[in-house]
Design brief:
With about 675 residues, this protein is α/β, with parallel strands linked by helices. Helix content is about 30%, strand content about 20%. It is built from 23 helices and 27 strands. It starts with 10 loop residues before the first strand and ends with a helix.
């Protein structure tokens, strides 16, 4: 296979032979411990190396200077204490045959002053960044000399740490801020002409080469266009890249489109979300590389092997970045080599991994709950410690399918009852929204896995206690999910749920969507409604802004659709009552912050307020279960086995059958529980 598949052919980069063309590009999953790549960070990358990746690149935005503090969980490479961590990291990754490279950066204006050592933000000019909001000090000559030296020292630490190379992050960071006219207003030798604006970067690379020598891989991550007015243009980017090539500054280009310092650009270009098509910028990259004779890496929503294979075989790139694809399945390459490409867990582009970095402070995959938890949860399901059991799972949504999958992989005999004709549960409903259609990949993958494992699936069966007990189970897992909660306010029975409308309920005229959740459900429906000519949409939320629980990879694109569709957005108002008003409905709202009540009249009112657990099966069995339906929470959290009865059966419930949460929580419940049976 290696002789015929272009993805499996080796590639040599400045003397470094990479075993295949697939890489994970630098990113910051926020797993650092006191700024160091300790066990959690290493295990996350080691899983990719074990899974066959050619090169794993780590340390996104690793900070080279004290005035570039770690504000979203980056590594600190500003001191020699990082070297032993690098050495241990390199030994582990190299032991699996993969190459290892670290990205270094000075954030410039892309940080904040009230973190780390509370030093002033510095930048080429006093131009504030929208995202991080600091007002920077204009760098003087001493700042420039100091920071250039910091880059060189950080590169030396990478080499002394046994890494195979170093990448300098230009895109939106300090070298890019010098390069781009909208951020560089200087009139000295570092401003004005392209040659002057490129001077800082060229001096950085000259200093880096002076520390690491000519036989160490040095690369750059740079942008090749975007929509920010006054930013570095496409033609200037070509001229600049050729300046780097002629100076012998870099061995490769890691090409991005757009800059990450504006939230819309981040979601549209920098880290394309589910709103974007797959691999949206390969054409841009192909045109650029024809103008610059340097090896090219590119990684912007390349989630599948056919797309990656096309990019390499057509000469668009030399190495293809499949970064989020490896968050979803770090064994992607191994499965391809073994002929199991169809069993690769897909990246569905939900952006949950990135959004959590900015929100909760750690990257997690929406549906691979082992990623980032490698010390506690193995990506490869282990066999059971005791005898094979008879497991009955009730409900074929993501929680139920994951419970069935893991139980079957462990060798248990599994029966899955599903009330409908298809598996998928709420995922299948959510995928009816156009912007979320790709998340159906979660349900499809789980369904394919449990079918391959020969789980006994009973479709169209609304299982009652007799059905379940007839299987003589050792354990029953209730994963029946929930139903939309529209009746938590007076008159809620007059309203529709998001499920109703996505499921085909006819609406027209004025549609008022009330979102008391803040996740994707209501905004994704609004995007669909806003495209219809026969609908006018109003969006009301008690939160201080729409899409309050989403991060920067998603909410900007939702807001773009809202603005484009003329959606009227009203925050800070809580729905109190809905009543009939002729042929329409009248909704009464109150603000938590005072002020007069508000009334809105609409043809339809849609309420999103999470789900109420559907637990008929659980309630019917709880009095007969040996554990009284109680899951040992301490054992669940610690990864220990659940107590199993000598006689009778244990009863558990998971996912939204417990409480309204999200896909990740449902699958995490299921995996932890099933590993303990």
């Amino acid at each position: 296979m290696a002789k015929t598949d272009p993805l499996l052919s080796p590639f040599t980069l400045n003397g470094l032979t990479i075993r295949n063309r697939i890489v994970s590009t630098p990113h910051a999953p926020a797993y650092a411990e006191n700024g160091m790549p300790a066990e959690r960070y290493r295990l996350y990358h080691e899983e990719k190396a074990r899974g066959g990746i050619g090169m794993t690149m780590f340390g996104g935005s690793s900070c080279v200077s004290p005035d570039s503090p770690s504000v979203f969980g980056q590594l600190d490479v500003s001191g020699d204490r990082v070297i032993p961590y690098f050495q241990q990291f390199a030994e582990r990754i190299h032991g699996h045959g993969a190459a290892l490279l670290c990205q270094i950066s000075h954030l410039g204006r892309r940080t904040t002053w009230n973190d780390g050592d509370w030093l002033p933000v510095v930048a080429p000019s006093r131009v504030r960044e929208h995202s991080h909001r600091g007002f920077p000090k204009e760098m003087d000559a001493a700042d420039i000399r100091r920071i250039i030296g910091d880059y060189a020292a950080a590169a030396r630490r990478c080499k002394e740490g046994g890494l195979d190379g170093v990448e300098v992050l230009q895109n939106g960071h300090l070298p890019g801020q010098f390069l781009s006219p909208d951020m560089n207003l200087r009139t000295d030798g570092y401003g004005g002409s392209l040659e002057n604006r490129a001077r800082f970067a060229l001096e950085v690379f000259e200093a880096v080469r002076g520390e690491v020598g000519s036989d160490f891989v040095v690369g750059i991550r740079m942008e090749i266009g975007g929509e920010i007015e006054g930013a570095t243009g496409y033609e200037e980017s070509i001229r600049y890249a050729n300046m780097l090539r002629e100076a012998g500054a870099v061995d490769y280009l890691n090409l991005n489109v757009g800059r990450p310092d504006h939230n819309y650009e981040l979601s549209h270009y920098g880290v394309p979300s589910m709103f974007q098509k797959l691999a949206p910028f390969l054409t841009n990259v192909a045109a650029f590389r024809r103008e610059v004779a340097l090896p090219v890496i590119h990684a912007m929503r390349v989630p599948d092997l056919p797309t990656a294979r096309h990019a390499v075989s057509e000469g668009i790139v030399d190495l293809i970045g499949m970064t989020r694809a490896h968050i979803a399945d770090p064994h992607l390459v191994r499965k391809m080599i073994d002929g199991n490409e169809h069993r690769i867990r897909p990246c569905v582009g939900a952006g949950y991994c990135i959004d959590r970095i900015y929100g909760e402070g750690e990257a997690l995959c929406l549906h691979n709950v082992a990623t980032g938890r490698e010390a506690r949860i193995s990506h490869i399901t282990p066999p059971p410690d005791g005898p094979a059991r008879r497991i009955v799972v009730v409900g074929g949504g993501p929680a139920g399918m994951e419970a069935a999958r893991v139980s079957a992989e462990r060798g248990h005999s599994v029966v899955l009852f599903e009330a409908g004709a298809k598996l998928g549960g709420q995922v299948r409903i959510a995928a009816q929204a156009g912007v979320r259609r790709d998340i159906i990949g979660i349900a499809d993958w789980l369904a394919g896995e449990i079918e391959a494992l020969e789980v006994d699936i009973r479709f169209d069966t609304y299982a009652d206690a007799d059905d379940i007990l007839a299987e003589a189970p050792d354990a029953v897992i209730v994963a029946t999910g929930g139903l939309p909660d529209v009746e938590h306010v007076a008159g809620g029975a007059l309203c529709l749920s998001v499920w109703d409308v996505l499921g085909g309920a006819k609406v027209n005229g004025t549609v008022l969507v009330y979102d008391d959740n803040g996740q994707h459900q209501a905004p994704s429906l609004v995007c669909d409604l806003a495209e219809r000519e026969d609908v006018t949409v109003a969006f009301v939320t008690p939160d201080r802004a729409a899409c309050i629980e989403m991060g920067a990879s998603n909410y900007p694109k939702y807001l773009e659709r809202f603005h484009r569709g003329g959606v009227r957005v009203t925050p800070d108002h809580r729905l109190v009552r809905v009543e009939r008003d002729g042929n329409a409905l009248r909704a009464l709202f109150r603000s938590d912050y005072g002020g007069p009540d508000m009334e809105m009249r609409a043809d339809h009112v849609v309420i999103e307020h999470g789900t109420v657990p559907l637990i008929e099966a659980y309630d019917a069995l709880v009095g007969r279960a040996s554990n009284a339906g109680v899951t040992d929470m301490a054992a669940l959290v610690a990864g220990r086995a659940q107590p199993m009865p000598e006689d009778g059966f244990a009863l558990h419930r998971i996912g939204d059958a417990v409480a309204s949460r999200n896909i990740h929580a449902a699958i995490y419940d299921a995996r932890r529980l099933a590993l303990g049976l």
